[in-house]
Design a protein that fits this description.
This protein is mainly beta. Helix content is about 0%, strand content about 50%. It is built from no helices and 11 strands. The strands form 2 sheets. Strands 2, 4, 5, 6, 9, 10 and 11 form a 7-stranded mixed sheet that branches. A hairpin with a 6-residue loop joins strand 4 and strand 5. The radius of gyration is 13 Å and the shape is globular. The chain starts with a strand and ends with a strand.
């Protein structure tokens, strides 16, 4: 079993930056591809991007491509989401997830509790 804990959310002005972290417990956590999702009030959970188990490959939703960067440090069992040029429409609860490589939240086995990101205009 892998447990995930997100941190780093907060309030930022449009155009600003934030870096989210996702700390994973469990010695096998580095074996899994991982991803970030987000969910705004009244909307479905949305795929943001994913990273392979080694960190060698990443994949992003069109809405964040060129602005967000996912990385991971397997020695620290931590995944990161660097968010630049933030927009008000990026406001959501951000979740990290592990155990799949797809874009559908249904396929992921492990989830964090989420961290709120609010972008003011």
């Amino acid at each position: 079993q892998v447990q995930l804990v997100e941190s780093g959310g907060g309030l930022v002005q449009a155009g600003g930056s934030l870096r989210l972290s996702c700390a994973a417990s469990g010695r096998t956590s580095s074996r899994y591809a991982m991803a970030w999702f987000r969910q705004a009030p009244g909307k479905e959970r949305e795929f943001v991007g994913s990273i392979s188990s080694s960190g060698a490959s990443t994949y992003y939703a069109d809405s964040v491509k060129g602005r967000f960067t996912i990385s991971r440090d397997n020695a620290k069992n931590t995944m990161y989401l660097q968010m630049n040029s933030l927009k008000p429409e990026d406001t959501a609860v951000y979740y990290c997830a592990g155990g799949s490589r797809g874009t559908s939240p249904i396929s992921y086995m492990f989830w964090g509790q989420g961290t709120q990101v609010t972008v003011s205009s």
